[in-house]
Design goal:
Blueprint: H1 5-16, E1 21-26, E2 29-33, H2 34-44, E3 49-54, E4 57-65, H3 69-78, E5 83-88, H4 92-96, E6 106-112, E7 131-137, E8 140-147, E9 152-157, H5 163-170, E10 174-178, H6 182-191, E11 195-199, H7 206-217, H8 230-246, E12 258-260, E13 267-268, H9 270-276, H10 290-294, H11 300-311, H12 317-332, H13 334-344, H14 350-358, H15 364-382, H16 390-397, H17 403-412, H18 433-460, E14 466-470, E15 474-480, H19 484-487, E16 497-501, E17 505-509, H20 511-544, H21 546-572, E18 578-580, E19 584-590, H22 593-601, E20 610-615, E21 622-626, H23 633-648, E22 657-661, E23 665-669, H24 682-696, E24 702-706, H25 714-732, E25 735-739, H26 748-751, E26 755-765, E27 768-777, H27 785-792, H28 796-815, H29 820-825, H30 845-851, H31 860-875
Parallel strand pairs: 1-5, 7-10, 9-12, 10-11, 13-23, 18-22, 21-25, 21-26, 23-24, 24-25
Antiparallel strand pairs: 1-2, 2-4, 3-4, 5-6, 7-8, 8-9, 14-15, 15-17, 16-17, 19-20, 19-22, 26-27
Helix pairs in contact: 7-8, 11-21, 12-21, 13-21, 14-15, 15-17, 15-21, 16-21, 18-20, 24-25, 27-28, 30-31
């Protein structure tokens, strides 16, 4: 069966984009056919229909409305699809000029992938959306990443073994690799939920990459931006190549690439980020993470900067001090902080507005966002204090310099413009006389005609003259036949042109009336054309100032982060940490910010603060922490790691005082679970993570380890934990917090100079354990596991039996000589019969009396009388 011209066009375009769903524009709908339709209908849960036949079979078809396409795009992208958006490049009327059966020209204008989204509705406002590329050139690796929605562009030299930790830090949506590396990298990439895309090896060529980058930034050499390795240039060049492919030549507005160095940031591997829940909770999502608790930023750009800083704490003391001083100034000047935050709340997302305008996906509302944001920036600049710390002073200097642009945007734009330029109505009155005239004719055509009618009646002396309209003649002048001679005689016949005579009326026109008619009929489209022309002028003006606008946007984000952290510190009573180049970690009254926040949300239960002192220079660099489950060991471990991270990102910290010697790496092995996809048991996961720590940690690392060796036999686990602690102390020489249930290990404090015992306090009362959540020096005498099991709700028979077994094992160990097997063989058999119910003892009269007492309602005299009554009751 022959293929229709339209379907032939579809198949040709589809063949050029085999890996993507083709959104084929048909009027007000994007339609999909064949396998694309089947896949899209299932993914979007929309109806699958059919249109025509191909090779004798029905053609499956589904479609989505153009006006609602963004929501459908987001669903498809999240489900792993790529979408080629095919638009009509001409109107049906234009196509008919080539022949009545001509097909409207269509072409793909954009390839939508996870890393190339720009629309606000498709992105999280407070998070970056990175597109990354990894290059391997002559055994040298590099990772480049870009957020096309903001223009941020960075690159880093990176060997392949370190790719995983960096992907965990950046969390890109999409990674580009060569065809040859895909098989090797796919397991690593997909483990982080990142979409992987491939390009040919030529796209990663460093020579071609340098040319692409030079063309993009308008420079002959990249030396102005830094000294890049071949691998770095290859990775950046591949990003630009991919953007040219997906954006169909419309490259986004990218900032010059910023070269990052691993040695300047704290290294945190993927397992540690997951365990510490820095930017996302273990359950998934932002809620419950450290980021969600500390975010007090007022702008989207400030929130994105906060996430970057939290994911990449600095190791440069000068940088950290500058950030911390800015927060301190904001804490000490609450009026300044309050005023700045009020202004920042009115600052739109200028970075993303600028990016959309550069890709020609923006609209008048993006211009208004820049107008409003730059206006607020100028207001902040004008109101800045005389004295500011260096970081804030530099940021405030970058807020001004946009006076002419602000004036132009304020003059030309209405206060609340529409989203799209095609909607019109966004250029202010008085901006363009030609536009004002077109609008007047469009909106006030009748009044203009009425004025012309009055003018012609006066000129002709015929007061009954009327200007009328019909579908045949259009606008015309009508008078009764009694005035025919006058109207058709000089001098009036030079102005009034005869058109038609009826039984009772004569109709005329004039040159001015014909011109006015044309203007009225075309006024709407003419007004829109003028507005679009003015919009393009404003867009070009903005893009000419893009570098300065980006600089101001960055400055606003820096200010927002500083005052946001200050607001957090004031509200939560956080302190400024002292940082230096020593190897000490000395924290007084430290708290876990996420747990403390959760407790406050649950009724205000106070968090028990604890001290931590690791002195790697002449003192104990390792604390060996013992204590029962549920006592707070894991919380204590995590909170000290989080305090170090917060301190090195430049924030105040949740403590009374904190002295942090710069940390180079943070490793956490707290909690574990099976990795069934890789065939790993809980114990294997634990050992893999521990191995990574022992193989990488240096003498400036901070390591927190919890329950090493618990997933195997007792003696195996004890042996592994013992050897691990010795290795950390003797070989890695790291500062460490090491929690364990193996009380035998407390003997290491007497054998290793840098190890000190610490324990979490508990209290026993009537056979039950009370957790005090208080860490103190010393070793725990027992684990209280049976009491914890009782709190968890194990059946009473099981608890009773556990006590019997525990007593037998402990007594056997004290007496010595008996093997574990002998002890177990001597135990009586388990009885499933529930133990007899405990006999109820007579309640104390004093306790019964206390049950009815309400202390808040007692006067001092009544309280004293109560004490005497309780004493008498206790004697009875």
């Amino acid at each position: 069966m022959s293929v229709t011209p339209m379907m032939a066009q579809y198949l040709e375009i589809k063949e050029a984009h085999p890996g993507a769903l083709l959104f084929y524009r048909m009027g007000d709908f994007y339609e999909m056919f064949f396998d694309d339709a089947v896949a899209a209908a299932e993914a979007l849960d929309i109806a699958l229909t059919k249109r025509g036949k191909h090779d004798g079979a029905d053609i499956p078809m589904c479609g989505v409305p153009v006006h609602a396409a963004e929501g459908y795009l987001l669903t498809l992208i999240r489900k792993g699809f790529r979408v080629a958006v095919c638009e009509q490049m001409e109107s049906p009327a234009e196509a008919k000029k080539r022949g009545s059966k001509s097909v409207v020209k269509r072409d793909v204008v954009r390839l939508v992938t996870p890393g190339t989204l720009t629309e606000d509705t498709l992105l999280e406002a407070r998070r970056h959306n990175f597109l990354a590329a990894f290059a391997d050139v002559r055994s040298e690796g590099a990772l480049a990443w870009v957020d096309i929605s903001t223009g941020a562009f960075s690159v880093m030299s990176l060997d392949m073994p370190l790719l995983g930790p960096e992907l965990a830090r950046l969390a890109p949506s999409e990674l580009i690799v060569t065809d040859a590396k895909e098989a090797d990298l796919r397991p690593v990439v997909e483990d982080f939920g990142i979409s992987i895309s491939t390009l040919g090896g030529a796209a990663f060529d460093s020579t071609a990459g340098a040319e692409r980058l030079g063309t993009l930034f308008g420079v002959k050499t990249l030396e102005a931006f830094g000294t890049f390795t071949r691998a770095e240039v290859g990775a950046m060049g591949a990003l630009v190549e991919y953007l040219e492919i997906t954006q169909k030549g419309k490259l986004p507005l990218l900032r010059p690439p910023r070269q990052e160095v691993q040695a300047r940031t704290v290294q945190i591997d993927a397992a540690t980020r997951r365990n510490l829940e820095l930017t996302s909770a273990l359950s998934g999502g932002r809620s419950g993470s450290l980021l969600s608790v500390i975010d007090r930023t007022a702008t989207a750009a400030g929130a994105r900067l906060l996430e970057r800083r939290l994911a990449s704490p600095s190791r440069v003391l000068e940088t950290i001090s500058a950030r911390s001083d800015a927060v301190e100034y904001s804490v000490e000047n609450p009026d300044f902080t309050s005023a700045v935050r009020d202004a920042l709340k009115r600052v739109p997302d200028m970075d993303r507005a600028l990016s959309r305008l550069s890709l020609d996906r923006g609209g008048p509302r993006d211009l208004a966002a820049l107008r409003n944001g730059l206006g607020q920036a100028q207001a902040l600049f004008d109101a800045q204090p005389d004295t500011l710390p260096d970081l804030l002073a530099r940021a405030f200097r970058d807020l001004s310099g946009h006076g002419d642009l602000i004036d132009r945007l304020e003059h030309d734009l209405v206060a609340e413009p529409p989203l799209l330029a095609r909607d019109g109505g966004f250029i202010a009155a008085g901006c363009e006389p030609e536009l004002d005239e077109a609008r007047q004719l469009r909106d006030e055509g009748r009044s203009v005609i009425a004025k012309m009618q009055q003018d012609y009646a006066t000129q002709s002396g015929v007061q009954s003259l009327k200007i009328k309209h019909n579908n045949v003649l259009g606008y015309f002048i009508e008078v009764t036949t009694t005035h025919a001679d006058k109207m058709m005689s000089p001098p009036l016949n030079e102005t009034f042109i005869h058109r038609q005579t009826t039984a009772n009326q004569i109709r005329f026109t004039t040159v001015d009336l014909s011109d006015l008619e044309t203007k009225i009929l075309n006024a709407g489209s003419r007004a829109l054309e003028i507005e679009k022309r003015l919009y393009e002028g404003l867009r070009s003006l903005v893009l000419d100032n893009a570098a300065l606008i980006s600089q101001t946007a960055n400055a606003l984000a820096e200010i927002d982060l500083s005052v946001g952290l200050a607001t957090l510190a004031t509200a939560q009573d956080w302190c400024k940490p002292h940082l230096d180049t020593s190897r000490s970690v000395d924290i007084t009254g430290g708290r876990h910010p996420v747990v403390e926040h959760a407790l406050s949300q649950q009724g205000g239960t106070p968090f028990i603060a604890n001290d931590c002192e690791l002195n790697a220079e002449g003192g104990a660099a390792v604390w060996l922490l013992t204590g029962p489950n549920m006592s707070g060991k894991s919380t204590f471990l995590r909170q000290n790691a989080l305090i170090a991270i917060l301190a090195q990102m430049g924030s105040f910290v949740p403590a009374q005082a904190a002295h942090i010697g710069l940390v180079s790496q943070i490793f956490s092995r707290v909690g574990a679970s099976d990795d069934l996809a890789r065939g790993r048991s809980t114990f294997m996961v634990e050992m893999v993570e521990t191995a990574a720590i022992l193989n990488q940690a240096d003498d400036r690392a901070l390591v927190i380890l919890d329950e090493i060796g618990r997933g195997t036999a007792t003696y195996d686990g004890l042996s592994i934990a013992w050897a691990t602690l010795e290795h950390l102390h003797d070989v890695n020489k790291s500062r460490a917090l090491f929690a364990t249930h193996y009380h035998e290990m407390t003997a290491l404090a007497g054998k290793l100079d840098g190890v000190e015992n610490a324990t979490v306090s508990v209290k026993e009362w009537d056979g039950e354990v009370i957790f005090l959540h208080e860490v103190k020096r010393g070793a725990a005498d027992r684990s209280y596991g049976v009491q914890v099991a009782q709190l968890a709700g194990l059946p009473p028979a099981v608890i009773t039996r556990a006590r019997v077994v525990l007593d037998a094992l402990e007594s056997g160990e004290r007496e010595g000589g008996a093997t574990q097997k002998t002890l177990i063989d001597d135990l009586p058999l388990f009885s499933a019969t529930p133990p007899p119910a405990p006999t109820k003892t007579k309640a104390s009269p004093a306790l019964e009396m206390l049950e009815t007492v309400h202390p808040d309602e007692l006067t001092p005299r009544e309280a004293l009388d109560l004490i005497y009554k309780l004493k008498d009751a206790a004697k009875s």
